[in-house]
Amino acid sequence: MSTTAGAPVALLGGTFDPVHYGHIRPAIELLEGLGLSELRLVPGRVPPHRPQPRLDAQTRTHLLHLAVANIPGLVVDERELQRAGPSYTSDTLQGLRRELGPERPLCFAMGSDAFRSLPHWHRWQTLAEQAHLVVTTRGGDSGEPLSPELAEWLAPRQVQSAQALRSTPAGRVLFHPVSRLEISATGVRRLMAQGRSARGLMPDPVWEAMADAGLYGYPQQ
């Protein structure tokens, strides 16, 4: 995909413990569906809203680089690994906004479950000052109602098309469908702990690196 001067940049964070196609396929769909110049996958060092990762940050990031090496437009952004303390999204967006300047459209992608919990995030009401929020939805999502606080915040910001994200640098919320892949990092870790293969659930270079290193308890080859 060619880079367009004013095309949005997007971030997709996570622990990637480990990365798998459930991360990669939606990232590609966001890249193409939103017409992004690039989508940055941001591995968290100390995620504040979930259990700590099993693998250390260096290993998770190495596997992530292997996963996206041959996918144009997907980039690994290591900025959260270079900061001490919890990996707050507000800090990450502020840093990238300073780099991109005030006019470039910036998007932060998150799942629908994470969006429903947004009022519990650090400085959550400031996120839309730095970026658009893109909420990924999948067929079969529970569709649980939003809290009154979040619904009131969302109402003046929600838009219906990706094109609306290109005309302003931040401040809008788009719900965007992506494919549902029944793959989870928890399931991958469980398979490997049982000595079973997780091949086919992630790019082959990632699987081979994990198997060779005996990660998650998988036996050495």
UniProtKB/TrEMBL annotation:
One example of a Gene Ontology biological process annotation: NAD+ biosynthetic process
Recorded coiled-coil stretches: none
UniProt cross-references to Gene3D superfamilies, sorted A to Z: HUPs (3.40.50.620)
Entry EC no(s): 2.7.7.18
The Cytidyltransferase-like domain, residue ranges: 11-190
Matching InterPro entries: Cyt_trans-like, NadD/NMNAT, Rossmann-like_a/b/a_fold
A molecular-function term among this protein's GO annotations: ATP binding
Protein name, UniProt field: Probable nicotinate-nucleotide adenylyltransferase
Organism of derivation: Spiribacter salinus M19-40
Lineage: Bacteria, Pseudomonadati, Pseudomonadota, Gammaproteobacteria, Chromatiales
Encoding gene, per UniProt annotation: nadD
